[in-house]
């Protein structure tokens, strides 16, 4: 079933299921599909947002300043322009990211550990080849950095009418 064939009620129902305690779920194809729909919807919404608003003034959370400062303090040399997915998934990086992420529990950032799609190359739009899975706080940290450091500016310029 194509993702764009779902109506708002179906997407809301899927979203409601995905906010439940993950330990209650088995690895079932229908649950994975529901997660994929939510992740796709989030990616599509974010893509529309950064292509229509100046990314430098975009605020993703009430904690953007703190997240950015913390992120660049922990990952000062991480290339956010083009992510090295293999590097992000090394055991050392996973542990470093886990410690970073756990500081943003549900009280700090809602759904901080929800699986989220992120673009690998910031100069390109979302696509199957240009996406990888991260948790929401990683997405926020990297995208806040991309917005502030000008790496998402080209997407907004692509969509501005001439």
From TrEMBL:
Residues 31-156 form the Polysaccharide biosynthesis domain. It comes from the Eukaryota. Pfam families: PBDC1. InterPro entries: PBDC1-like_dom_sf, PBDC1_metazoa/fungi, Polysacc_synth_dom. PANTHER family: PROTEIN PBDC1. This is PBDC1-like protein.
